[in-house]
Amino acid sequence: MTSSLPATITLAGISKSFPGVKALSGVSLTLHPGEVTALVGENGAGKSTLVKVLTGIYQPDEGEIALEGRPTTFPSAHAALKAGITAIHQETVLFDELSVAENIFIGHQPRGPFGLIDWPKMHALSRDLLEKAGATIDPRTRLRDLAIASRHLVAIARALSVDARVVIMDEPTAALSHKEIGELYELVDRLKVAGKAILFISHKFDEIFRIADRYTVFRDGRMVGEGLIRETDEDRLVRLMVGREIGQVFPKKTVGIGAPVLTVSGYCHPTEFDQIGFELRRGEILGFYGLVGAGRSEFMQALFGITRPSKGAIRIDGEVAVIRTPNEAVAKGIVYVPEERGRQGAVIGMPIFQNVTLPSLERTSRHGFIRMAEEFRLAREYTSRLDLRAAALDQDVGTLSGGNQQKVVIAKWLATRPKVIILDEPTKGIDIGSKAAVHEFMSELAGEGLAVIMVSSEIPEIMGMSDRVIVMREGRIAAEYPREGLTAEKLVRAAAGIGGQA
Ligand SMILES: Nc1ncnc2c1ncn2[C@@H]1O[C@H](COP(=O)(O)OP(=O)(O)OP(=O)(O)O)[C@@H](O)[C@H]1O
Ligand SMILES: [Mg+2]
């Protein structure tokens, strides 16, 4: 399928610096019509920066761009869009207060005779595009009423709304469920057939090998390799990416499981979950598997005091506890690292070290004074154990790459030394090398007696790290399995509600 057609777009010698970091150093990239090029690299390698150069959001310091052989520049995002370059960005830029249709057509609404927005047409077109993206969403819904996966589908529909030559997807499946991911793959296949050049950024190797024709590897802002997917394999790509061998992928340690720390009984919610009950012990990693929408995150949010259960009780270290707010949860030793770390996690505009130490102020202050040296020490310890890649810890957290921002949020909650930590999709968007670091740290902390609840939709992660797994389906506990004898098939069947022998 490697065409001899001329390239759709070629970038050569592109460099881009930010204060203190050279995000891109003379990189090149070629995208071909009807082909998917996977862009891979560790967190902070420069992938999203390149996307922003391609879409006119950033101006490169040097380098050339040629569109179908003709030299060009994208002085603005609008210019790139007009040239037929569309992107689904890693941090989706959507507007909460606008409707789904308005978000899809922002900047290029269909207009009627007097230049007025043609609403019926816009809604009809939106319905079409959403259907193509595999979503059943009413275009009139206000965006803020949608769950994260649906918001992502809206972003995909928007990318389809312009007549694109180049479609860029920056980790498009990170927020999608299993079924939606399948639909996205079909969509990519259709875009290929339609002759679009596609740039696909992902940390998931199975999907790279499933849908990409070519690969380009970035390491520390440089292009270190490219070629045809069918002429390479996973090991070779990983070596190019990280420049070294990586150790064990799921470094789970066997630790002694201690006394119960958290007992949940009969937790109910009018619409989201029903009769959730279990016991969690010191040193235990309890996996929560399920399809998106199974109610896992909703239950965790209730446990953390973001929402209130309608019924149910919990005990912490055997004592009945009532948690009405996240502050009460933290005070009682329960912390929650949300899935959507962008909106619920890092405080943009604040330096990394303060982000980490924010909820641990009693550990870093004395007589009411914050000790900066202590703050730095704590921040350094936790961020280095999570393999954070940052120029300096006093850097604004907003300047970090997507994956590195997530590590800051995990570090921040671990630094409070909780009894129970709830990690919602802990390694989503985190590169393969850092993933092992996150897992290793998790395992070490469990060894020190921390009890971990890990919500994950990735079967290898659930199987690799959990001592025990609870599967949720439609708001209820569908099954529970010990580590021994656990299989992917059992998990999938329980999550989908397929009966029979597994
Ligand atoms: N606006 C900015 N200001 C300062 N530094 C930035 C800015 N944007 C990106 N960087 C830095 O540029 C480098 C590349 O970041 P980029 O977001 O391109 O990485 P990435 O490959 O997309 O990583 P990830 O897999 O985590 O999404 C990082 O060191 C990042 O901190
Ligand atoms: Mg990125």
Give descriptors for this structure.
single chain, 502 residues, Rossmann fold, six-stranded mixed β-sheet, 18 helices, binds adenosine-5'-triphosphate, binds magnesium ion
Tell me what the structure shows.
- There is one protein chain.
- The protein is an alpha/beta fold and 502 residues long.
- The chain folds into 2 domains: 9-242, 3-Layer(aba) Sandwich (Rossmann fold), CATH 3.40.50.300; 260-333 and 419-426 and 451-496, P-loop containing nucleotide triphosphate hydrolases (Rossmann fold, 3-Layer(aba) Sandwich), CATH 3.40.50.300.
- The protein is 33% helix and 25% strand.
- The protein contains 18 helices and 22 strands.
- The protein has helices spanning 47-54, 77-82, 100-105, 119-132, 148-160, 178-193, 205-211, 234-242, 296-303, 326-331, 341-344, 352-357, 361-364, 372-385, 402-414, 432-447, 459-465, 488-496, and strands at 9-18, 21-31, 36-40, 62-67, 70-72, 85-88, 166-170, 197-201, 214-219, 222-228, 260-268, 276-281, 285-290, 311-316, 319-321, 334-337, 365-366, 369-370, 420-424, 451-455, 468-473, 476-482.
- A hairpin with a 2-residue loop joins β21 (468-473) and β22 (476-482).
- The radius of gyration is 23 Å and the shape is globular.
- The two termini are 39 Å apart.
- Bound molecules: adenosine-5'-triphosphate and magnesium ion.
- Adenosine-5'-triphosphate binds next to β2, α1 and α15.
Q: What is the 3D shape?
A: globular
Terminal CA distance reads 39 Å
Give the strand tally: 22
The percentage of residues in β strands lies in 15-25%
Rounded mean pLDDT is: 88
**What is the CATH superfamily classification of the largest domain?**
P-loop containing nucleotide triphosphate hydrolases
Coarse structural class: alpha/beta
The domain tally reads 2
